[in-house]
Amino acid sequence: MEKPAEELARIYGNQRWIIATQAAVSAKQICRRLTEWGSDVLVVASNEGTGDLPDAPIFYTGSKGSSALGSIREFYASVESPSAAVRQAVDRFDPSGNARVIAEPHATAMTMLGRATFGVRRPTWSAWEDKMRVDQLWDDIDIARSPFRIVPIEDARAAADDLATELGTVWAADNTDGWHGGSELVSWVSGPDRYHDVLDWLGQRTRVVRVMPFLEGLPCSIHGWVTATGVAVFLPVEILILRRIDQTGFEYAGVATVWDAPTPVKESMRELSRKVGTYLAREVGYLGPYGVDGILTPDGFRPTELNPRMSAGAGVQLGVVDVPLGLLMRAEIEGLVQVDHEWLEEIAIGQRKPAFHFGKMVSKEVRDTMWVGLDESGNVVEAGSAEDSIGKITAGPAATGSYVTGEFQLEKLRPGAPVGAQVAASLNLANGKWRLGLPELAAAPVL
Q1: Which end of the chain is more exposed for a tag (fewer CB within 10 A), N or C?
Q2: Could you tell me if 66 and 110 lie in one domain?
Q3: Local structure of 85: helix, strand or coil
Q4: Angle 155-178-296 from CA coordinates, rounded to 5°
């Protein structure tokens, strides 16, 4: 694709668009592009978010949520079945009802706010996100995986007895209540003494669970993009899945591309991704980005789930592409453009730069910033100023109360190494200073 921006300007320009997104700040770049192309834009969000707001009118639905997953579900409810106040605000912007809605990547609803959504993923695609189903895909394309059992919740205890390692097992809920992610319905069951609590907690939220051995190793993922011309495959990404040190569960905190996987690992993970993308294209006509999450164990990468959508891991490494990829993805899903997979892969790999984003949603309302540095032993500590720091942690608005996020000066970190330990230490530091209610966290050991 020589001039993708010109094609997108033709598709999206001089129209009326509504951007439905939880945090209004996340719409900033899309709003800028759409207005540059002569379009009118309204943002419908649940909250401001942390950062600079888009230069566009914003209407807040006021949806909340007790967790990251809960806030997503409540926001979708607020735009799929909007209140009278929300409908009136949208109708004032679009009295003809002809505007189209750009929704977040995991959306599947064909209508929101009384208008058609544009470029949302198909139900046959999102179905592969169900953790009860995806192991069949690994088997269909001959991918090495961990043993597992899919059982009614009341039989999970016996399955765990059969599969447990020294660190226990991991139980994942089915999709009884719909899509879930961010480790919220995944439990670390470290031993029989945890059975009762986990059975009680998960039993209120699911009917069936997948039980797997606890896999020791680095949480990571591999991403690709299915286009009309083929499958683009990218490089491995570290997933910031942190462990509660009391061994009661996990906390998802983002993704990073600072880690440089060994060459054999890169090659094997990229081959796995290519097989997955080819399968999705053949079986369900898939188009767009996808990611395979898993654990890099001493025996190799073992997949645990498939995310058939644009995810944080794909987004952070594709940030080098000077094209609004979310808009490109939606236009291809609608059949309005053909993305050249070789162009996409060449740019994403050839121009890749170390980057990462981490953050946690918490219930406490905090609006503050803290600089962090390293002591003589390499431990993360609070710094007195920006000059003495390696980065900063910021707490700002979110649907649950606050979003605590951070950024580091990458040149001050060890090149090529995982950053999970620094992220865990930073969140522990913020938790101690601002009393966020987070558990004490640790990163997976580097094997």
Answers
A1: C
A2: yes
A3: helix
A4: 70
Print the domain residue range for 253.
126-146+215-350
Determine the pLDDT at residue 355.
83
Predicted local distance difference test score (pLDDT) of residue 73: 81
Is-contact 243 443, C-beta < 8 A?
Answer: yes
User: pLDDT band at residue 66, thresholds of 50, 70 and 90?
Assistant: low
Lowest-confidence segment of 113-122, 132-141, 215-224, 394-403 by average pLDDT: 394-403
Summarize the confidence of residues 340-359 as an average pLDDT: 86
Cβ-based neighbour number of residue 247 at 10 Å: 14
CATH number assigned to the domain comprising residue 275: 3.30.470.20
pLDDT, one tens digit per residue, over 289-300 is 999 999 999 999
Strands (E) in 175-264, as ranges, are: 186-189, 208-213, 218-226, 231-233, 237-244, 250-256
The answer to the question of residue 296 being in a domain is yes
Q: Same structural domain for residues 9 and 107?
A: yes
Classified as helix, coil or strand, 204 is coil
> What mean pLDDT do residues 252-272 have?
95
Strands 16-20 and 40-45: parallel
Token pair recorded at residue 358: 């981490």
Question: What's the rounded mean pLDDT across residues 301-322?
Answer: 84
Residue 394 in tokens = 């910021």
Query: Do 225 and 319 fall within a single domain?
Result: yes
Residue type, 376: E
Q: Residue 171 domain-assigned?
A: no
Task: Count other Cβ atoms within 10 Å, centred on residue 368.
Answer: 13
Spacing of C-alpha 1 from chain mean position: 27
DSSP code of residue 54? P
Closest CA to 275 of 133, 143, 131, 134: 143
Q: Taking every pair of C-alpha atoms in the chain, what is the biggest distance, in angstroms? A: 64
Among 19, 47, 45, 44, which Cα is nearest to 33's? 19
Total domain count, the chain = 3
Question: Phi first, then psi: what are they for 220, rounded to 5°?
Answer: -155, 175
Whole-number mean pLDDT of the chain? Answer: 91
User: Under DSSP, is residue 84 helix (H, G, I), strand (E, B) or coil?
Assistant: helix
Q: Phi and psi for 134 in degrees, rounded to 5?
A: -65, -25
Q: 394 and 377: one domain? A: yes
Angle between helices 195-203 and 156-163 in degrees, nearest 10: 130
Of the three residues 300, 327, 350, the one that is the final residue of a domain is 350
